[in-house]
Amino acid sequence: MTSLLITNHGLSSADATGTLRSRGRHFVPVFDSCRRITRWRFPMAALITDFHLPMRSLEIKNRTSVDDIKSLRLITAIKTPYLPDGRFDLEAYDSLMHMQIINGAEGVIVGGTTGEGHLMSWDEHIMLIGHTVNCFGASVKVIGNTGSNSTREAIHATEQGFAVGMHAALHINPYYGKTSMNGMVAHFDTVLSMGPTIIYNVPSRTGQDIPPSVLQTISQNLNMAGVKECMGNDRIKYYVDKGIITWSGNDDECHDARWASGATGVISVVSNLVPGLMHDIMFRGKNHSLNSKLTPLIKWSFQEPNPIGLNTALAQLGVIRPIFRLPYVPLPRAKRLEFVKIVEELGRKNFVGHRDVQVLEEDDFILVGRY
């Protein structure tokens, strides 16, 4: 009866009883069978217009402001390393995080595409966000990728992410089961209510562009920090001219995005490998020479869908174990030889880790299907 009353706010107790009697001959009202003598009252939930209020904390001292997120220039989409049985290698992860922080990264995306959040259970996902906040949250902004093509899942994951302390959320538009433009706005409005949020537009993965009309509509929400935009620098400049904070989502375009199109910064994959050089690109003004030197590494990293190249490179550098969660597999040996040459040309000192770069053989890699 309660669920019936929640969806029919004006229904009285007698009306509800009559409705249920009409559906079956043997209905016995609860208050009759239990011999209630007090008058029945509506549950409080039935009187609340917006039943599903956001599960959020308004504790000021620990809350990150949207402006804190808007100012970030170098955000690394951090890699998630694994143990031989497929579980997280937290020691290697912590080492990667330290290398990001000492080289100037201001924020990290946890469990994004690069971090293989789509290969995690939500328990793993939220645990890794919480671990990152607990260990590094005082030194770097932790942005949890809690987006989903299911609004229900996105709400639940975002509530949990903020509850364990993440500073902001990253949200993608619903993929595969695509929705209308109005549906996209409704999806984003729902998750934006919970805290600082970066919207992520990457049509090559979602199959659907977030058009400027949608982004400008949701940008009115005070919790929207900005957009990670992968549709090129013309789109970035358009948003910048409209006063919308924008990060480049493409390493190969981020130099010009920052210094010609007005982007605030970059959410980078290659900064997992050369965080110091990516910091220079974002902070030290136009540097076409350095940008050109980085081009071969960037092209190599994206010759197959991300994070295949990055996973292979980090394993060759000896900073993670050569373990892949399927369906990802390492780049072939010829490509691994190319990476060794790229490291030699850029200088080993510019890359993370201290071990000599290796080619690695096929038998060195472990592919995990059950994890």
TrEMBL record:
InterPro entries: DapA (IPR005263), DapA-like (IPR002220), Schiff_base-form_aldolases_AS (IPR020625), Schiff_base-form_aldolases_CS (IPR020624). GO terms for molecular function: 4-hydroxy-tetrahydrodipicolinate synthase activity. Keywords: Amino-acid biosynthesis, Lyase, Schiff base. Pathway: Amino-acid biosynthesis. Transmembrane segments: none annotated. One of its GO terms (biological process) is lysine biosynthetic process via diaminopimelate. It comes from the Eukaryota. Pfam families: DHDPS. The keyword Iron-sulfur does not apply. The keyword Lyase applies. CDD domains: DHDPS. Belongs to the DapA family. This is 4-hydroxy-tetrahydrodipicolinate synthase.
